[in-house]
Design a protein that fits this description.
- The protein has helices at 17-72, 76-87, 145-195, 211-294, 302-315, 317-348, 361-371, 373-376, 397-418, 450-453, 473-484, and strands at residues 92-99, 104-109, 117-127, 132-143, 357-360, 380-385, 392-395, 424-432, 436-443, 488-494, 498-506.
- It is α+β, with helices and mostly antiparallel strands and 508 residues long.
- It folds into 3 domains: 17-157, 2-Layer Sandwich (Beta-Lactamase), CATH 3.30.450; 242-345; 354-506, 2-Layer Sandwich (Heat Shock Protein 90).
- Strands 6-8-9-11-10 form a 5-stranded mixed beta sheet. A 4-stranded antiparallel beta sheet has the order 2-1-4-3, covered by helices on one side.
- Strand 8 and strand 9 (436-443) form a beta hairpin.
- The chain is rod-shaped and about 210 Å long.
- The two termini are 24 Å apart.
- The structure holds adenosine-5'-triphosphate (ATP) and magnesium ion.
- Adenosine-5'-triphosphate binds at residues 406, 410-411, 414, 443, 445-446, 448, 452, 456, 461-464, 469-475, 499.
- GO terms for molecular function: ATP binding; phosphorelay sensor kinase activity.
- This is histidine kinase.
- Residues 219-246 form a coiled coil.
- It is found in: Membrane.
Length: 508
């Protein structure tokens, strides 16, 4: 039998709603953030490229416009300054001016190589009075590497800002979802947890009018319905307990009547015997009085003695005297048996004892054995091994009595069904431990077959014929011990050898 304790569902970190939310939306948001930056900066990149093309033309035009005059005048200083002013542009890496002898006249910067490099080479003309003469050439080295670098720099600069904004939005969304979804959910879980201890939570209030309000409304209705059902169940359980008690007592009634009837029979025959004895004594006394009144002298005579002896013999007074003692002892014993049974019956169900109180377990065991004595007397002998001293637990008196009686009757049925030559053994024990009392009820009866073991606590499960069992006994025992007393009930059994039921009751 497994211990059915309720468990509260614990969430793993990765199962939490916000973590799931984050794991789905964070990559998405990062992806879209990066994509949007690439898009915006990509457009900017394309624009810068167009501007770069225009800049190439304007730089070339500016250089060609003035370099002809400076080269004609061999004015290296001014030409150098002009080149310097154009090298400021990030797209220009170097400029070389060649004279008409194909000698380098001036060179500044460096010659960019590679796929980003671009070279523009133009002849330099000078307009004399008569003609336009070619006096050299200019080479301008361009690169668009800086555009890509600027693009990457801007992406790297903007990405953290965009990510911070996106993550803040996600955290904000999680916070709002917490408030909107998790808060009512948590309240519902708390309300459900409260019902664990048979408390019924006050209805959850939710001011907003939204879908959550709908769920909470349905939840409150469900809780109300559960509360009503719980009350109905309680009532049914108490009715069932009463019914089972009456049924058990009904089964025992015949036996109890027989138990009481036997002493009543011999008490009545003893009383009959004592009545006739009393009559004989009275008759003897009356005869004696008559005899004495006839002749006062006769009392000392031998004749008188003979008369007395004859009278005693006639009335069988010696036999009566011998029997009377035994009769009285037997009658007293019979009356004790009757009063024990009647007391046990009376004490078995204290109708006033509805609340928890101190219950004497040894008393319960003895009482149940007395009430059921006619059931086991002819088929088993009882072994009692009870805790020496008070064995008190805080519990429901009537229900503990009922559980013990059910288990004793089950045990006697098992012994009866085992059908052996010798009398069976019904053993009851009680032991007091630090925080609980352990009761055992064992029999050496049939034992419980493997395929039956899982079912015996189920309502209405019985292997007995109609009229002998209804299958409610152990269900009620389980409810009373586990649910009502927060104790435990379990068994050990071996087919053909017997069964022991254990009841563990907390002391308070
Ligand atoms: N000590 C035992 N030895 C063998 N079988 C048992 C024992 N106690 C219970 N059982 C089995 O468990 C079944 C259920 O027991 P339970 O007490 O619930 O119902 P019942 O005795 O059949 O009927 P009742 O409602 O009158 O008690 C029994 O029918 C029987 O098969
Ligand atoms: Mg039973």
């Amino acid at each position: 039998m497994t211990d059915q304790t309720s468990k509260i569902y614990k969430l793993n970190f990765y199962d939490r709603l916000e973590v799931k939310f984050l794991s789905v939306f964070l990559p998405l948001v990062i992806f879209f953030a990066v994509l949007s930056i690439l898009l915006v900066e990509g457009i900017d990149y394309q624009k810068t490229k167009v501007q770069y093309k225009k800049a190439q033309q304007s730089i070339t035009a500016d250089l060609l416009a003035l370099s002809g005059e400076y080269l004609w005048n061999l004015d290296k200083r001014r030409l150098g300054k002009l080149i310097e002013s154009q090298l400021v542009h990030p797209g220009v890496t170097g400029i070389i001016v060649w004279d008409e002898d194909a000698q380098v006249f001036i060179q500044q910067g460096h010659q960019e190589q590679g796929e980003n490099a671009n070279l523009i080479e133009e002849p330099i003309y000078f307009q004399t009075d008569s003609a336009r003469e070619e006096i050299g050439k200019i080479q301008i080295f361009f690169t668009d590497k800086y555009i890509f670098e600027a693009f990457i720099t801007r992406v790297l600069q903007n990405l953290p800002i965009v990510l911070i904004i996106c993550i803040s939005i996600i955290l904000g969304a999680i916070y709002i979802s917490q408030q909107m979804i998790k808060k009512p959910l948590k309240r519902m879980v708390k309300a459900i947890e409260e019902t664990e201890h048979d408390n019924f939570p006050t209805p959850i209030s939710w001011e907003k009018k939204d879908e959550i309000a709908m769920v909470i409304h349905s939840f409150n209705q469900l809780m109300k319905r559960r509360q009503d059902l719980h009350q109905e169940n309680k009532q049914l359980a108490s009715n069932l307990l009463e019914a089972q008690k009456i049924e058990a007592i009904g089964h025992l009634a015949g036996g109890i009547a027989h138990e009481i009837n036997t002493p009543i029979q011999y008490i009545s025959s003893n009383i009959h015997f004592m009545n006739s004895a009393q009559k004989r004594y009275v008759s003897f006394l009356n005869s004696l009085k008559d005899q004495l009144s006839k002749d006062s002298d006769t009392q000392n005579t031998e004749e008188f003695n003979k008369w007395v002896e004859a009278k005693i013999e006639e009335l069988d007074l010696d036999f009566i005297s011998e029997e009377i003692d035994g009769c009285l002892t037997e009658t007293t014993e019979g009356l004790t048996i009757i009063s024990d049974i009647v007391r046990a019956m009376k004490e078995f169900n204290h109708s006033g004892q509805k609340d928890k109180s101190q219950v004497d377990i040894n008393g319960c065991l003895k009482r149940a054995l007395t009430i059921s004595s006619n059931q086991w007397k002819h088929i088993a002998r009882v072994e009692e091994q009870l805790h020496d001293g008070d064995c008190m637990v805080m519990g429901y008196y009537n229900e503990i009595n009922q559980v013990i009686l059910n288990l004793i009757i089950n045990a006697t049925h098992a012994i009866e069904d085992h059908k052996t030559e010798r009398k069976g053994v019904l053993k009851v024990t009680s032991a007091l431990n630090e925080d609980h009392c352990l009761i055992t009820i064992s029999d050496n009866g049939t034992g419980i077959p493997k395929d039956v073991q899982d079912n015996i606590f189920l309502p209405f499960y019985t292997t007995k014929e109609v009229g002998r069992g209804t299958g409610q006994g152990l269900t009620l025992c389980y409810d009373m011990i586990v649910n009502k007393h927060k104790g435990k009930i379990y068994f050990e059994t071996e087919e053909g050898k017997g069964t022991t039921f254990f009841i563990r009751l907390p002391l308070r």
